[in-house]
Amino acid sequence: MSERIIVTYQVAAAPAEIAARAEALAIEQSVECPLAAVTEQQIRDEIVGRVEAIAPIGETRFSVRVSLASATAPAEPGQLLNMLFGNSSIQPDVTLADVELPPAYPAAFGGPKLGISGLRAKLGAPRRALTGSALKPQGLAPEALAGLAHRLALGGVDLIKDDHGIADQAFSPFAARVPAVARAMREACAVRGAAMLYAPHVSGSLDDMRRQLDIVRREGLSVVMLMPMIVGLANFHLIAKEAEGLIVLAHPSLAGAQRIAPDLLLGKLFRLLGADATIFPHYGGRFAYTPETCRALADAARRDWHDLKPCLPVPAGGIAIDRIKELLAFYGTDVMLLIGGSLLAAGEQLTEHAARFTAEVASHGQ
Amino acid sequence: MSERIIVTYQVAAAPAEIAARAEALAIEQSVECPLAAVTEQQIRDEIVGRVEAIAPIGETRFSVRVSLASATAPAEPGQLLNMLFGNSSIQPDVTLADVELPPAYPAAFGGPKLGISGLRAKLGAPRRALTGSALKPQGLAPEALAGLAHRLALGGVDLIKDDHGIADQAFSPFAARVPAVARAMREACAVRGAAMLYAPHVSGSLDDMRRQLDIVRREGLSVVMLMPMIVGLANFHLIAKEAEGLIVLAHPSLAGAQRIAPDLLLGKLFRLLGADATIFPHYGGRFAYTPETCRALADAARRDWHDLKPCLPVPAGGIAIDRIKELLAFYGTDVMLLIGGSLLAAGEQLTEHAARFTAEVASHGQ
Question: For residue B236, which of A97, A299, A304, B264 sits 20 to 30 Å off, Cα-Cα?
Answer without folding.
Answer: A97
